[in-house]
Design goal:
The protein has 354 residues and is an alpha+beta fold. Helices cover 28% and strands 23% of the residues. It folds into three domains: 8-99 and 332-346, Rossmann fold (3-Layer(aba) Sandwich); 107-121 and 213-321, 2-Layer Sandwich (D-amino Acid Aminotransferase, Chain A, domain 1); 126-209, SH3 type barrels. A six-stranded antiparallel sheet has the order 5-10-6-7-8-9.
Length: 354
Amino acid sequence: MSSMKNGRVAILWRGDHAARAVATPQNNRYRHIFEELEARGVHAEPAVYADDMLDEVRQQLMAVDGVLVWVNPLDDGLTRAKLDPMLREVASKGPWVSAHPDVILKMGVKEVLHRTKHLGWGTDTHLYRTPAEFRAKFPATLALGPPRILKQNRGNAGQGVWKVERTDTARVIVLEAQRGSAPEELALENFMARCEAYFTGDGCVVDQPFQPRLPDGMIRCYMGGDKVVGFGHQLIKALIQPPAEGPNSPATQSGPRIMHGPDALAFQALRSKMENEWTPQMTQTLGIDAAALPIIWDADFLYGPRTATGEDTYILCEINVSCVFAIPEEAPAAIAHLALERCCRANAHLSRKI
């Protein structure tokens, strides 16, 4: 297949004017994806984005057949408030966008944990849409005894994710999942007041039980569309109370994420659940066409209680859609294959050889 035959794809990530000026397919962390796209005859180009370059980037994206987007919802005070409307506009004019902002709002937010709690990955999950509802209902749930995990609707890197544990009827110990956080004891009323900021815009707060097997680690299941493309297993320390030496000591830092291919034996039960049950059920519940699933996304699982026969169960704690990286070494080829497939579906004039 010759270059350009199968379309043009822009890979978009956040940067500044200087980064945009020097960006090439080789000098960024997405280089292996660029390589796999070019190997399939897809011309791939960098699209470094910042809010003050919106018009310039829009013009670039209007000229390609598809866009792969890697931009966190929150990043050093920056949001996607300007980016998302622009991506919707681009998608409405013909190019496919992955992940489309409307898909992110359905599956890449914490509310999905409540909407899909009836699936096999669900648990005892509550949703609070207003500060009044939060104040009225959360204390009673917390009073049942075990610690709870509160999550703001949109965020990343542990921002707005809290472990909350009662010390008595009026006070709690809270610990944020963000790196470097330390436990804090305060009045429950004061903590709930702190959370009011999470209800602005499309905000809400999701409430789940703390999973006692958290020290066993988190399994990140990487998906390309509706198929598993790999796994990452990581021993994490977030939401585990730091030892006396402090929140930034080596003992509090999460271990490396060990990557595995989709055929890793340890995760085949989870793979079967994701491909054959949970992903189809999720798309039906959320009203997402399977063809609109992001080209790369992941579902983070914690180990739930073991069954009577000793088998593991899995509890969904988050779906990541906006900016999924790092990825298993098998993922770039799967991303490129799906990108070519999307190009050909969206543009009849391109080669159908996939």
